[in-house]
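## tool: complex_structure
## caller: assistant
## args:
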Amino acid sequence: GENVEQHPSTLSVQEGDSAVIKCTYSDSASNYFPWYKQELGKGPQLIIDIRSNVGEKKDQRIAVTLNKTAKHFSLHITETQPEDSAVYFCAAILSGGGADGLTFGKGTHLIIQP
Amino acid sequence: ETGVTQTPRHLVMGMTNKKSLKCEQHLGHNAMYWYKQSAKKPLELMFVYSLEERVENNSVPSRFSPECPNSSHLFLHLHTLQPEDSALYLCASSQDYSGGSYEQYFGPGTRLTVT
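## result:
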């Protein structure tokens, strides 16, 4: 089955700086890679995703890059703000022909220092 | 109500109790999921339902019993749980197309404590 590794487990950055979180996956057939943000007391919120036919996707201050050859993908947050503080999870899935469960990384606790 | 809702938000139960968790999605989706989130472990998939049929059961102990009466509602029936079952139980939904199922949207979860 799929295995997803996520690093770092904790990341502290100054407000206004950029943050990068990296994930690797094991199943080369995986074709969909979402990122979730989870705030205290809430469920994971989908913030951005990428499919295997695309190398990069951007949405305002967040972007995701995918390297299929190396089997890794990264989340980039620019101009970080206090409200970006949360736990971020990457996930991977081979999606096709029916509903499938996501395989998640262990999460990164992002701390934005004022 | 919008999105995915879960009740109750918090539940404390003894090992001999029987309880049920409820999930409702208001997104018009046709697939629903149960995930377990324990401290210091990745979210773990428990069950998947597509068009009200169970399509995946991820080696979950029989003390957890899912039920999906229609595409908008999902239940997780609990009985004779163990303390290690204490966790956040998350429900999610997605739209399942013939070409695959992608974006999954999560509810706020039920924080379960087994005493």
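## assistant note: The radius of gyration of chain B is 14 Å. The interface with chain A takes residues 4, 6, 31, 33, 35, 40-43, 45, 48-50, 55-56, 58, 90, 94, 96, 98-109 of chain B (CB under 8 Å). Handing back to user.
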